[in-house]
Amino acid sequence: MSDAAVSPVHLGLPDDAEERARAEVYGLLAQLYHAAPTPELYDRLRMAATEAPSAGGFLESSWSALVAAARRVPVGHVADEFVTLFGGVGKPEVALNASWFLAGALNEKPLVALRDDLDALGLERPVAVLETEDHIAALCEVMSYLITGEDVSVSNLATQQRFFNAHLRSWCERLCETIEQQPAADFYRALAGFTRDFMAVEAQAFDLL
């Protein structure tokens, strides 16, 4: 991931630059929800600019809070926080899967529908990946691909809109609220706030298509 991926200063720029910025944000979210950040990624996040191109931009406040949390919370504490919230033995404090929020259990119908859509897009889960395809990190990776992929029959705004509305829009806000309510959340509370705001911007943009 490029250094620009940890800074939303590109958001609001027109044309290809804006699309690259969207893909980079999805890529950053995918990395941070898949595992605790590496020291290299965390250092880049700490050094990221916090100003949006236009003063008072909608994402500026929550992005600034995320960067501030990275500068305040040691990377080792973030790793512990990740395990406390999303890992450990047995049921995690917060499930990061769409099926859990939409059907109340893992591996339910939302996952089946997602797999059908991924198959139609020619995408499948790598063998080495343990998380199911409805994990928030995996869904963000798909969105990044749909923005930057070279096959325009797949990577286009219409496909992005359909995938986002079908597999992210209906549950992501509840996920963010659940994370924010966890007593152990600190860095990830800030990440949840930024995630919610970014997804709201995406939803509004897709509604205007």
Q: What does the model show?
A:
This is Molecular chaperone TorD family protein. Pfam families: Nitrate_red_del. Keywords: Chaperone. This protein has one domain: Orthogonal Bundle (TorD-like). Helix content is 60%, strand content 0%. It contains 10 helices and no strands. It has helices spanning 15-34, 39-47, 60-72, 75-86, 98-103, 109-120, 136-148, 157-167, 172-180, 187-207. The longest helix has 21 residues, at 187-207. The radius of gyration is 16 Å and the shape is globular.
How does the SSE layout of this entry go?
Elements: H1 15-34, H2 39-47, H3 60-72, H4 75-86, H5 98-103, H6 109-120, H7 136-148, H8 157-167, H9 172-180, H10 187-207
Helix pairs in contact: 1-7, 2-3, 3-10, 7-8, 9-10
CATH architecture: Orthogonal Bundle
Total number of strands: 0
Tell me the strand percentage band. Answer: under 5%
Order of helices and strands: HHHHHHHHHH
Distance between the termini: 28 Å
Mean pLDDT: 88
Number of helices: 10
- Which structural category do the helix and sheet elements fall into? mainly alpha
Q: Give me the CATH fold name.
A: TorD-like
Largest sheet: none
